[in-house]
Amino acid sequence: MRHASKSPVLRRNSAGYTLAELLVVFALSGLVALVAVPAAGKMIRHSRDLGAFASVRQVLAAARLQAVKHGANVVVEISLTESKQIQLKTFKDRANDTTLPLPADELAAAGNFQQDSGFLKAGTDEPTLGDFTVASGVYLWKHGGTRDDLGEGVAFDKYAGDDTLTNRIVFLPSGGIAPPQSTDCGLPTASGGRGIYFADSEGRNFFRVTVDSNLSGKFRVDKFVPGTGYVSSGWTWS
Asked: Do the beta carbons of residue 75 and residue 171 sit within 8 Å?
């Protein structure tokens, strides 16, 4: 009995792919990679940036709540770690502290916008309320400035006429803030003003967390848009 020959399709499968077919597969794989890699990079930047300004907003909101709750000034001091990560330390500056009043001889050391210790009366040192470090991959960076520049990246400077009191936000028992007095730390504008400025490592997305009201302590997140400056709405991720 004569057996039917194998079909061309079966013969080709047993022999494997042809060179032309492999070239097509490689070309398609390269095309997918060209599309997928930028998309993945955008997702990573999005995740890092979103996490950064959400964390900063949470720290500021907690500090404001503590100031109202304790009837005392609460300060958030911004700095950089040795690895250039953004660090936010919150402490109670005991001015107008209704929960644990200071004796008259120690009152002068309170409400001075810096963390004091070594008071004679037990339990009156100004405590640290929180210490938070923003995840790596996000840097202090104002658009047009230099990355990791603390002076440019944080514009909350000068209190009580003291130029050395820098890089701190002071929340008051009323829920508002003590306005920084440096000339470049006024109300936020499209080009500058007070705020914490940061960006992703590629310099594609620049943000500013700022407090736009002295009385309410209300804060917002702005993004830099080329040709427009820092805006609070109408922007997209890059």
From this structure: yes
